[in-house]
Amino acid sequence: MSVKLRRVARALAIGWCVSLMCYWGFSATGMSWPFAVIDVTLAVYFFRQSRGSLIPVPLFFIHAAMVFYYLLISLLNVTVWYWIVLFANRSFEMSLIYIAVCSIIRIRSRNDEASGGILL
Predict the structure, then answer these.
(1) 68: which residues sit within 8 A by CB, 6+ positions away?
(2) pLDDT digit string (tens) for 41-67?
(3) For residues 114 and 37, what is the distance between their CA atoms, to the nearest angstrom?
(4) Cα separation values, 79 from 10, 13, 18, 52, 114, Å
(5) Is 116 left (phi over 0), alpha (psi -120 to 50) or beta?
(6) Which of 2-6, 41-45, 103-107 has the lowest average pLDDT?
(7) Are residues 32 and 70 in contact, defined by beta-carbon separation less than 8 angstroms?
(8) If DSSP codes are grouped into helix, strand and coil, which group holds residue 40?
(9) Cβ burial, residue 31 (10 Å; 0-12/13-18/19+)
(10) How many Cβ atoms sit within 10 Å of the Cβ of residue 50?
(11) pTM listed for this prediction
(12) Nearest-CA neighbor of 36 among 12, 19, 51?
C-alpha cells in the first residue's frame, strides 16, 4: 500500500475511534457538534493531503458534506440518534470502500508493472 493510502487509512481509523468515544459520551445528551469537529478535522487533513495526490479528494468531499449534515441536524434540533448514526455510518462505509478500491487498484497496477503488462 502506498504511503498516501496508509496515511488516509490511519486518519480514518483515528477518526472512527474518537467518534466512538464521542458517541458513548454525547449520544445521551443529543449533541452532534463533537462529530462535526471530528469531520472538520478530517476534511482539513484530507484537503491538505490532496495537494500532492488525488486519492484524498473524494474523502475530503465526503467529510465536508458530513460537516454540513451535522450543521443541519443541529439547526433543525434533530435528536433521533438512529437516523443520525445510520447516515454517518453509511458515509464512513463509503470512505472505507473507497480506500479498499484504491488499494486493490494499487496492488493490481504494481503486479502488472512487475509482470510487464498494462493495467486497463
Answers:
(1) none
(2) 999 999 998 887 888 899 999 999 999
(3) 43
(4) 30, 26, 20, 39, 53
(5) left
(6) 2-6
(7) yes
(8) helix
(9) middle
(10) 18
(11) 0.79
(12) 19
